[in-house]
């Protein structure tokens, strides 16, 4: 019987080698922050997908007669909001809501898997194009053409 327990492979340390440097706390904090943000983005994307899925199921069960339309006009920080009859709104109908006439570009918020945030503003150009619905609303941006 052995009283002294030894590892099966002896561990030999070279005394001439310097010890490993101490980890930098700022680097460790930055890496932890990056990982937390990455995890938060993944969770938000998953939540947005689930919300979109449940909202699309609700739309099939109980269609609403009106839809809320909100839009940001030429970079203004506060959006305009109105209600439109029906669930299908075209760009032509949307243009009729604008009180200021001129040449504009129109962008509408929609769910997208292309980017980490889960949404995009998609440009719509054709008057007969149906506008995307995002979280039971149509959310647009109107930008003046220079």
UniProtKB/TrEMBL annotation:
<keyword id="KW-0879">Wnt signaling pathway</keyword>
<dbReference type="InterPro" id="IPR038207">
    <property type="entry name" value="DIX_dom_sf"/>
</dbReference>
<dbReference type="GO" id="GO:0090090">
    <property type="term" value="P:negative regulation of canonical Wnt signaling pathway"/>
</dbReference>
<dbReference type="Pfam" id="PF00778">
    <property type="entry name" value="DIX"/>
</dbReference>
<dbReference type="InterPro" id="IPR029071">
    <property type="entry name" value="Ubiquitin-like_domsf"/>
</dbReference>
<dbReference type="InterPro" id="IPR043581">
    <property type="entry name" value="Axin-like"/>
</dbReference>
<protein>
    <recommendedName>
        <fullName>DIX domain-containing protein</fullName>
    </recommendedName>
</protein>
<feature type="region of interest" description="Disordered">
    <location>
        <begin position="1"/>
        <end position="26"/>
    </location>
</feature>
<feature type="domain" description="DIX">
    <location>
        <begin position="64"/>
        <end position="146"/>
    </location>
</feature>
<dbReference type="InterPro" id="IPR001158">
    <property type="entry name" value="DIX"/>
</dbReference>
<dbReference type="GO" id="GO:0016055">
    <property type="term" value="P:Wnt signaling pathway"/>
</dbReference>
């Amino acid at each position: 019987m052995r009283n002294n327990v030894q590892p099966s492979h002896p561990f030999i340390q070279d005394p001439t080698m310097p010890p490993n440097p101490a980890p930098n706390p700022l680097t460790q904090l930055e890496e932890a922050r990056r990982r937390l943000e990455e995890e938060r983005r993944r969770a938000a994307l998953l939540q947005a997908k689930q919300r979109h899925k449940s909202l699309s199921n609700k739309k099939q069960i109980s269609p609403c007669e009106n839809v809320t339309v909100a839009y940001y006009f030429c970079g203004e920080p506060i959006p305009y909001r109105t209600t439109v009859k029906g669930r299908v709104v075209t760009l032509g109908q949307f243009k009729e809501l604008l009180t200021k006439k001129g040449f504009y570009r129109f962008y509408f918020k929609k769910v997208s898997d292309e980017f980490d945030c889960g949404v995009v503003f998609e440009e719509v150009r054709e008057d007969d194009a149906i506008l995307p619905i995002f979280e039971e609303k149509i959310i647009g941006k109107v930008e003046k053409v220079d």
